[in-house]
Amino acid sequence: xxxxxxxxxxxxxxxxxxxxxxxxxxxxxxxxxxxxxxxxxxxxxxxxxxxxxxxxxxxxxxxxxxxxxxxxxxxxxxxxxxxxxxxxxxxxxxxxxxxxxxxxxxxxxxxxxxxxxxxxxxxxxxxxxxxxxxxxxxxxxxxxxxxxxxxxxxxxxxxxxxxxxxxxxxxxxxxxxxxxxxxxxxxxxxxxxxxxxxxxxxxxxxxxxxxxxxxxxxxxxxxxxxxxxxxxxxxxxxxxxxxxxxxxxxxxxxxxxxxxxxxxxxxxx
Length: 269
Ligand SMILES: [Zn+2]
Fold this sequence. Notes:
- The chain is built from ten helices and seven strands.
- By secondary structure, it is of the alpha+beta class.
- Strand 5, helix 7 (172-189) and strand 6 form a beta-alpha-beta unit.
- The longest helix is centred in the last third of the chain and has 23 residues, at 210-232.
- The model has no long low-confidence stretch (mean pLDDT 90).
- Zinc ion is lined by residues 109, 127, 129, 201-202.
């Protein structure tokens, strides 16, 4: 079975997002931390994705630092109960689409990217370890991130609810655990999460585009920063459920979501 190579615009878009996320001033990732992915085709468990290769730096990412993987091969590993690192390595090899030259090894977090792309409508996934967010995720107050909404724009960008994930060993175990949590989230809330907060680890922003993945990342950082400021000044006061539901359903807030989404269509590469 053959498949078209990734379009240059898709590759350029992911490279640009990765380098933006890696800008030192943003404090989202240093060295080889973090990774990004984009769905190339298909929906659900079919199709392919591009994901950052292991050991590469977001800040310096180039097209050769991306690996093309078949989602179905990765997701099959989650199904069959195998658990060893050797199986993961073998599956990465089987799942890799090799074209001209030997492909680099994908990040160990590629499995979680596959879950995010298969279990939600997201087309672009941005995983980072933001200093501001990890300050909370590595504290006794991490669960505050999942308690509720602090301000209206949080709901517009991150959604009415977010998903806070307990610490699980990165790789296969984490991918399996998150898959279950995302399915449960969709059952409870009738929609997929747009951001995952992973305790003692970082965030996954699930966007319809690279612009949206960046917007979600920026808003997650803002929420964490505001929560920490509120803690210093006596403690956070969350919007009530009625207030938050109202924002989530208002026509003008719906319009703002569409406007934010439309901005990416006008972007000049
Ligand atoms: Zn990570």
